[in-house]
Amino acid sequence: MGVSALRTENLSKRYGRLLALDNLSLDVAAGEVFGFLGPNGAGKSTTIRLLLGLARPTAGRARIFDTDAADVATTHRKLAYVPADVALWPRMTGAEVLDLLARVGPGTDTAYRDELIQRFALDVSKPAGTYSTGNRQKVALIAAFATRAPLLVLDEPTSGLDPLMELQFRQAVGVARDNGQTVFLSSHQLAEVEAVCDRVGILRAGELVEVASVAQLRRLHHTEVAATFTGTPPDLTGVLGVDGLHNDGVATVRFTLNGSPTAALRALADADVATIVVREQSLEEIFLAYYGQNAR
Amino acid sequence: MIAITAPARPERVLRGLAVRQVRRAALVVTTVCAGMSALVVVGYQSEALDPAALAALARNPAIRTLFGEPVALDQAGGFTVWRTGTVLAVLLGVWAMLAATRITRGEEDAGRWSLLLSGGTTLAVAVRQHLGVLAVVPVLAGAATAAAMIASEADITGSVLHGIGLAAVGIFFVALGGVSAQMFSSRSAANGAAAAALVGGLLARMVGDGMPALAWLRWLSPFGLMALTRPFDTNRGLPVAVLACAALLLLALAGGLAAWRDVGAGILVTADSRPARTALLGSVPAFAVRRTLRPLAAWSAGIGAYFLLPGLIARSMTEFLTDNPQFAAMAAQAGFPALGTVEGYAATLFALLAVPVGVFVAVRLAAVAADENARRLTLLLAAPVTRLRLLAAEVAVAGCAALVLITVAGLAMWAGTATVHAGLGMGDAIAGAWNVVPIVVLCLGAAVLALGWRPRTVAAVGALPAVGGFMWQVIADSVDAPSWVRALSPFAHLAAVPATAPDWPAASVMAGIAAAGAVAGTIGYRRRDLSA
Ligand SMILES: Nc1ncnc2c1ncn2[C@@H]1O[C@H](COP(=O)(O)OP(=O)(O)OP(=O)(O)O)[C@@H](O)[C@H]1O
Ligand SMILES: [Mg+2]
């Protein structure tokens, strides 16, 4: 692997009795689009605040392009951030906020910024106090995408966007990827993650439970199989890899397949299969399975 | 299974919420009002006062302007009202107004009311219940004050009337804050408007007391109405009844306005689209200046007006005291020594300047804490800006703004004295005003300390050296406390500049303490988690 855009080593964060983040070790390579998933309260925003040096770790280290996260004068020159809830000074207009952020920020491509303002259809002449949640989010998104910072850290950036704007967002992520920028995206929009991310990490109750590419995840996890038979369905009980077995009527069997399909296929081959439908689970189903397990 | 908890009556829930937000401060305010009044009653030493001299005192416009009409000074109760009445009324009024905007507009601003209001409660009900709870606090403070004074053996009627007056002023400012919070869509704008009304009321009282032709002005000011009741003297009920009616009308108005507007909006709509104003956005310090300019202008106007007036009456005041040496001694007991020369007079008044300017710096740093808490600072903190730089910029800008305020006060006083040819040099006036810098620096240090370790307490801790120190000195002077007790107040260490030279050693000690606080605060600020 090349350079890490961000790396955490045994990163932990404790709030009183609550261990919000437990020994997180994560490595996101430069140029990667990384999805960061987990149920509410899993510790995603906490991780991001530690990466940005806004909160101090209880143990472990967070590094941005090999610089400690606490050294914000260096690390923040290389990143742009969109917080989960964007708050702005109510009397400043969108244009003024964008101007401020461009002038104190890590460098902004103003031509691209103006293009983004058009695309996200933001009226920047209005005071921020009159903005809706989605409009405030757009201000932060435009400011972040318009920087050419090598790392974009986005915490649920589309929670307030309508589907049309969501599409613009995906495009902007695509442009960032083409520019070689790294994107660290925390999100509950699984379709969006599926569409834009190369790899995902799943956090549950402060612990990292999975890091894999979307395709790998699918492969690792259950495949749904439904088969109908002309004769009597075979008895698949106890066959290696078969789970959640149940019969629909006399001639149909449904089950989920875990791991290698060899044993199940062999068992099926002995019967007269009329039809067989094999369906990969969507990312959503995979995560629902995770979220379901004693989520915090 | 579906479990539905029976909803408690929404009004009760709202009241409980309001009580939780004000109870601690309410206790402090009530204790201060009652405690200070009782201490001054107990500490009063009656001296045989010459009736002719008393009459002269009551007629002197300067005395009346500055301290209010001296009434019944031959009684412990009357002296207490004269000495502490305005101070306590201002304290209670300022607190009531700030609390009213905080628990209504502040909560609404922070988005904490949207959830509350989605469940069967209207905005008007929420506003009424919150203001209703808050209005109880001045009643408690007034009752406690009256009870404390009676227990210290002041006359019953006068004490009760004074307590009612205090309560009415407090309720008036609860209502004023409430109305202002309905008019404006941001808490700072609401505070600004209400504070302007408060300063206006104070000035109207001063002018009305000082100039017989304008005596009617006092009927327009809550402080004036409170004074017009003349406790321990004629004990008039009408003015306080007028004040109470005005307060209740304003309270009703606040509820009515709340019914009229949308959640999150104000009655006065903010301007819609406008061209960008990009001045002072280029750096963190510039941005700090930008956010300070508007409040600085407002505070300058208020403080300038406030110090112009004493300048205008300087001559009448000093001449009166030279002619009536008996009162110079009495003024000294009341904490105003050396009023006989224009320099001594200016020095005495400039010491008071530490209070508003100290509050100003505390409020500016509290605004930083509020910005952090509301997550408005997050996008700035995500830029390549260290915490140290951000904090340094804010502290430097607040400090410089305080120096501007101090200079404005000095110039205003000088302009006033120059108008009446009282003979105060401009340099002397500026020097006298700058003499309070050590106390303001103490406030700044305390505020930074709080920002680093207890960000919710920045305003209170930051204002403590000025407001707490001032109150401490008033009490210590009134009860003739031992010198080590007096020495605990920073005001005890201010030399009477321009009458005497500045007390450089004391100033250095205060600056040193402030620096220690600032360093400790900075360490905390760099170490702690930011709510961003
Ligand atoms: N400042 C804080 N003080 C105390 N507890 C906190 C603080 N910040 C976060 N927590 C707790 O830490 C846990 C993780 O919170 P975090 O905000 O990281 O969750 P998240 O994964 O971002 O959730 P969501 O999807 O809802 O945004 C939660 O249980 C939260 O209550
Ligand atoms: Mg979150």
From TrEMBL, chain A:
Signal peptide per UniProt: none
GO terms of molecular function: ATP binding; ATP hydrolysis activity
Keyword rRNA processing: no
Source superkingdom: Bacteria
PROSITE patterns: ABC_TRANSPORTER_2
Annotated keywords: ATP-binding, Nucleotide-binding, Transport
Entry keyword Acetylation: no
InterPro entries named among the record's database cross-references: AAA+_ATPase, ABC_transporter-like_ATP-bd, ABC_Transporter_VariousFunc, P-loop_NTPase
A Pfam family matched in the record: ABC_tran
Location of the ABC transporter domain: 6-230
PANTHER family, per the entry: ABC TRANSPORTER ATP-BINDING PROTEIN ALBC-RELATED
Descriptive protein name: ABC transporter ATP-binding protein
From TrEMBL, chain B:
Keyword Membrane attributed: yes
Phylogenetic placement of the source organism: Bacteria, Bacillati, Actinomycetota, Actinomycetes, Micromonosporales
Protein name: Polyketide antibiotic transporter
Transmembrane segments: 25-44, 80-98, 133-151, 163-184, 190-208, 238-260, 296-314, 345-370, 391-417, 429-451, 458-475, 504-525
Origin species: Micromonospora inaquosa
Keywords: Membrane, Transmembrane, Transmembrane helix
